[in-house]
Amino acid sequence: MRWIRYTATGKTAYGIIDGDVIAEVKGDPFAGYEKTATQHALASVQIELPVATPPNFFCVGLNYAQHVRLAAKKLGIEAKMPENPDVGYRSNNALIAHGRDVIIPADATEKVQYEGELVAIIGKTCRNVAEADALKYVLGYTIGNDVSERTWQKADRTLWRAKNSDTFKPMGPWIDTSVDLDKLETRVRVNGQETTRFKTNDMIHGVALYISTISRYCTLHPGDVLWMGTDLFSPDLKHGDVVEIEITGLGTLSNRFVKASQA
Amino acid sequence: MRWIRYTATGKTAYGIIDGDVIAEVKGDPFAGYEKTATQHALASVQIELPVATPPNFFCVGLNYAQHVRLAAKKLGIEAKMPENPDVGYRSNNALIAHGRDVIIPADATEKVQYEGELVAIIGKTCRNVAEADALKYVLGYTIGNDVSERTWQKADRTLWRAKNSDTFKPMGPWIDTSVDLDKLETRVRVNGQETTRFKTNDMIHGVALYISTISRYCTLHPGDVLWMGTDLFSPDLKHGDVVEIEITGLGTLSNRFVKASQA
Lengths: 263, 263
Description:
2 copies of one chain form a homodimer.
Chain A: E1 2-8, E2 11-18, E3 21-28, E4 32-41, E5 46-47, E6 57-59, H1 65-75, E7 88-89, E8 95-97, E9 102-104, E10 112-113, E11 116-122, E12 138-145, E13 148-149, H2 150-155, H3 160-164, E14 169-176, E15 185-190, E16 193-199, H4 207-215, E17 225-227, E18 242-247, E19 251-259
Parallel strand pairs in A: 6-17, 8-14, 9-19
Antiparallel strand pairs in A: 1-2, 1-5, 1-14, 2-3, 3-4, 6-7, 10-13, 11-12, 11-17, 12-14, 15-16, 15-18, 18-19
């Protein structure tokens, strides 16, 4: 089942995708919903963020072995695999939907890169859940692009503008509730050319372990998002580039990159 | 003027404090409000978080000279003052209101400490605002306790449970819209005994500079909170301790600490 949040004829709503058609619902997938008689062609709506303002925005930093090795190499340090699922954070101001432009700030360097990530969306409140039960609290999955300005990432004390500048967190296009994590492959294309491909579930620490571990200390809430990190590395992106992140069987998140001074 | 969010006779609302009385409003201080005829005695209501779920939760890490020196000493490194106002993040799951208990996790070490902080609450959307205009976008101020488990802070890769365990972020009791930042003094008491006192506005980088800098890259939204950091250091807190953070002229945030296994 696929949930989509969209705007059509001036109204933003949740709907369920069936082929090329959206069946509008009253309510939402978290607090409850009723089906309505309203339908829209999928191609005719404006796709919105699958969750407008997540209560908590969790994001895993280092979660794929090759990425850890390449990141260490760039920094000239020894690669060290994370021993524990210590989670980090991003900020909602940076979220944009599928199809919207990523605005590269005018003073950014040329080191602007994508990170294609699986995103788990929490469906039910959970606290202190066992790893074996953790996935029951996931409503479904979507795709995230953890856009990063690598010069700022090295220079600043925190990741604030390197990772959280406005528009740096595309997320979407929809929520798929029935994916088989082990079958997914993440493929990233820049202007139609494939630049990155990896097995989505080749994570150092998986979704279930992260949720279980976080929930020992932090209550997870409906609508919370958990971005699972990325593998490999991106080329530097420039004005006009279109980045498509496909997770096979889940969908494709596509956004154009636009340099602010040229927007 | 003081805004309070509270529950009385089963209903949660915003109100304006006038002496010992709350005048209930319809709406809120961000999107707009109308006064109502309903009144409550301030002492009779349950105080709630001044903002239930901030869209973005900014928190300054190192912003007072003495705190930077003491933190460096504890880590055995040289003290280095932050050159730029690089902001960090906390997570909404940890927020609790004035009067609620901070629950110390059962497996926490004895290194649980308070940090008394001024909190600026954004009232209006702002982007790319000059430092001279930045405070116009602040609705008002409240108080935060950035509770920290120092062992986890050193051991984990991120601050997730060290700073964001459930109940680790008391905030309140209300929003004061007319404070003079230069006149404020932060005083912390544990079980009635003063343990910390510093001039609230003796910050390395002030509220206006932080807002101006953040807003160059990140849009600030109504209800966003900006925690401004703390000075000096806290003693280790134990089961039963009551921590009161007073900012003179603004109010007092009071919370009891309870060890989970003994809750």
